[in-house]
Amino acid sequence: MRGRIITSDHRFFELPVLLRWNITYTGGVPCDSYEVTCVYDRTMAELLHLAAGFLALDENGGVLLRGIVDEYEVKLTAAGLTVTICGRGYSGRGCARSSVSAQGVSITWPPFCRRRAGSAFAIYFTGFLRAC
Known about the structure:
By secondary structure, the chain is mainly beta. About 5% of the residues lie in helices and about 55% in strands.
């Protein structure tokens, strides 16, 4: 498997060989998730800071997962510097990172289409939300 980062300014960056990966397919409920680890070098600093999207690709370039980058962590171990990138699938764009159960939710049209600078579409909920 290979990984590719998409930055907020629409640049693509091929990650170095993945040392470890974990992709969880949930069928959209609450959403798919991923975590990948690769060797880190200092040229990745700016790209990781701007990371917005992630593509998991098979050996032939076929897309296994399209996702959102939620966070990354650079670690220094005895083996050297690594970076772990994790996030959720596109079905999680309108959801918070944590799993939330909603009751009495309504979505109003105008805020649904409002675009915030540097982020994906935001969904505004009214009603009561209960954390699982």
